[in-house]
Predict the 3D structure of the following.
Amino acid sequence: MDNLQERKFRRFNVECFVHVRFPSGNAMAEVDAVTRNISLGGLLLECGRLIPHRSPVEFTITVRGGPVSRPITLTGAGEVVRIEPGETPDRIGIAVACSRSMTQMENYLAVRA
């Protein structure tokens, strides 16, 4: 889905802290990441640990600054749909497609447009 014409939602270059949980063996693994971009249908994360392709994930995004006066916390769920090199050699880019639109983000992203 790298073709811009195929994208359903506009992407915004927003950096937010994200806490991600995903199954790893018989347990749930957890990793902290940062968004590179975000849309109503997904997000591109940058983190130091690989989350396997097609893994289901749950995430909590902390939004600070911009149009919000205090930090807000948003939750979501989705699936890893792409893995790519990160911006530095010790980082990994992980694209997550949301299993439901992050409608809580609509107001935040609309102000940034």
User: Anything to note?
Assistant: The beta strands are 17-24, 27-39, 42-47, 56-63, 72-85, 92-98.
